[in-house]
């Protein structure tokens, strides 16, 4: 496979685990594509799909307690100061960034395939899977458009009526699933972390699904639709397409999140109809136009910077083979440029105007209880995500971070007053969608 070794990641095998899947994103919607030939899995995320609701964790006698801890620390009585902090000063850990679920595609052809490759062109934001099976060449293209706010997957084959497959949308949380012969959807409300496991500052938590509007978390609606060229569509537990020439899957998700200080149900914004409206518009526009607009939008940001260390136009082995060769002393200067460019790609894919800033896992998370809740660890990790942003001419991608800081200033003013009796604002080392600023 010939490619520019600084702009394309490619592999000769599908991903065996989530960390091997390739990321797509438009700042709001994230996807991890495994690239399976027979069985495709796509992990799905939306950047406002979090547990919880607006809550301020106040304490009694905060300033006096702080002074007591400070005096003990100045006397080098650290265990005594820590005990007071644990018992009287710290509070509930942050809420959790949650996975939406998976979109799966199961092809009807045999398991054995030849000439397999999966690739991610980070200069265009396009993921491609190609392989041969039974004398047919199959191709799948995937991307998530920022302009049209949908994920699009095109399945094609070089022979007519060669596409037979099923599609399913599987929720990661408790949700209501519905299907017709051309559409699959999930609707639900996020849970809320109500108590912690183990010691007071343990980040793992027990979640509850509220039964009243007051107690419910963020509402969400996700929908995947199939448009086919030829063939027949039917429903038999999953969406089934038979003998099509080509097919396009359109996916979107929206939530009721209406701001860090707004109740997601009582003050939530509409989310079902906006999701459907964006899908309607995308399908009316069609695959080719959406793809062209997506590439132009992505490339306008990506093409602002380039890094040439030599060796970028040769024939390259698969990316995992290049990494292995590098670890064993091989010279591949273009691999460093690819690494640099991949960092820029992740920023473009995960942080765009109007979205949330990138959390501990960007916008890609497959666990209901992720490490450190996949939150904003603002003592270093959040800042690290954005260190290179301005240096690579991506000022627009920096805006979500600046907006979060402005919101934290409002939340943090309450924390400064309640905990320290101080003016100004303060944020401790963990934050979440609800702009948590209290110590944990």
How would you describe the overall organization of this protein?
Helix 1 packs antiparallel against helix 2 and helix 1 (62-74) crosses helix 8 (395-420). The chain starts with 7 loop residues before the first strand and ends in a 20-residue tail after the last helix. Among the domains are: 8-50 and 97-302, putative glycoside hydrolase family protein from bacillus halodurans (Beta-galactosidase, Chain A, domain 5, Distorted Sandwich), CATH 2.70.98.50; 61-91. The strands form 3 sheets. It has a 9-stranded antiparallel sheet with strand order 1-6-7-8-9-18-15-12-11, covered by helices on one side. With 440 residues, the protein is of the alpha+beta class. The protein has helices spanning 62-74, 78-89, 272-285, 287-302, 319-327, 333-350, 381-386, 395-420, and strands at residues 8-11, 22-25, 29-33, 39-46, 101-107, 114-121, 126-133, 136-144, 151-157, 163-171, 176-179, 183-189, 192-196, 205-208, 219-229, 232-235, 239-244, 246-255. The longest helix is centred in the C-terminal third of the chain and has 26 residues, at 395-420. A hairpin with a 4-residue loop joins strand 6 (114-121) and strand 7 (126-133). Helix content is 26%, strand content 27%. It is built from 8 helices and 18 strands. The mean pLDDT is 95. The chain is globular and about 80 Å long.
């Amino acid at each position: 496979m010939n490619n520019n070794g600084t702009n394309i990641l490619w592999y000769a095998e599908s991903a065996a685990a989530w960390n091997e899947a390739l990321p797509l994103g438009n700042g709001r919607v994230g996807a991890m594509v495994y690239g399976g030939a027979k069985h495709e899995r796509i992990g799905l995320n939306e950047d406002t799909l979090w547990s919880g609701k607006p809550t301020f964790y106040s304490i009694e006698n905060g300033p006096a307690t702080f002074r007591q801890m400070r005096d003990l620390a100045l006397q080098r009585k650290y265990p005594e100061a820590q005990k007071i902090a644990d018992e009287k000063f710290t509070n509930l850990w942050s809420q959790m960034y949650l996975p939406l679920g998976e979109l799966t595609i199961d092809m009807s052809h045999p398991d054995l395939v030849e000439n397999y490759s999966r690739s991610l062109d980070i200069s265009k934001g396009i993921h491609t899977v190609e392989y041969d099976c039974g004398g047919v060449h199959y191709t799948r293209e995937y991307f998530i458009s920022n302009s049209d706010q949908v994920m699009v997957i095109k399945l094609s084959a070089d022979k007519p009526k060669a596409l037979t497959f099923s599609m399913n949308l599987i929720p990661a949380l408790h949700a209501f699933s519905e299907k017709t012969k051309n559409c699959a959807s999930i609707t639900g409300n996020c849970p809320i972390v109500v108590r912690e496991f183990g010691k007071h500052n343990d980040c793992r938590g027990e979640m509850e699904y509220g039964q009243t509007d007051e107690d419910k978390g963020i509402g969400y609606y996700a929908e995947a639709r199939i448009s086919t060229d030829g063939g027949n569509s039917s429903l038999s537990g999953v969406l089934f397409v038979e003998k099509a020439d080509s097919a396009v899957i359109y996916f979107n998700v929206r939530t009721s999140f209406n701001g860090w200080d707004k109740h997601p149900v009582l003050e939530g914004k509409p989310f079902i109809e906006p999701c459907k409206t964006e899908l309607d518009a995308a399908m009316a526009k069609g695959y080719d136009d959406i793809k062209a607009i997506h590439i132009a939008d992505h490339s306008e940001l990506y093409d602002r910077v380039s890094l040439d260390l030599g060796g970028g136009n040769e024939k390259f082995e698969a990316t995992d083979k290049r990494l292995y060769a590098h670890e064993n002393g091989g010279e591949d200067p273009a691999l460093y440029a690819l690494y640099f460019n991949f960092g820029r790609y992740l920023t473009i894919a995960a942080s765009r105007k109007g979205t949330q800033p990138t959390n501990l896992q960007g916008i890609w998370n497959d666990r209901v209880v992720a490490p450190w809740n996949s939150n904003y660890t603002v003592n270093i990790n959040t800042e690290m995500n954005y260190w290179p942003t301005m240096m690579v001419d991506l000022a627009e991608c920096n805006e979500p971070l600046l907006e979060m800081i402005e919101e934290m200033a409002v939340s943090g003013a309450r924390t400064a007053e309640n905990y320290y009796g101080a003016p100004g604002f303060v944020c401790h080392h963990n934050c979440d969608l609800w702009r948590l600023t209290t110590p944990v």
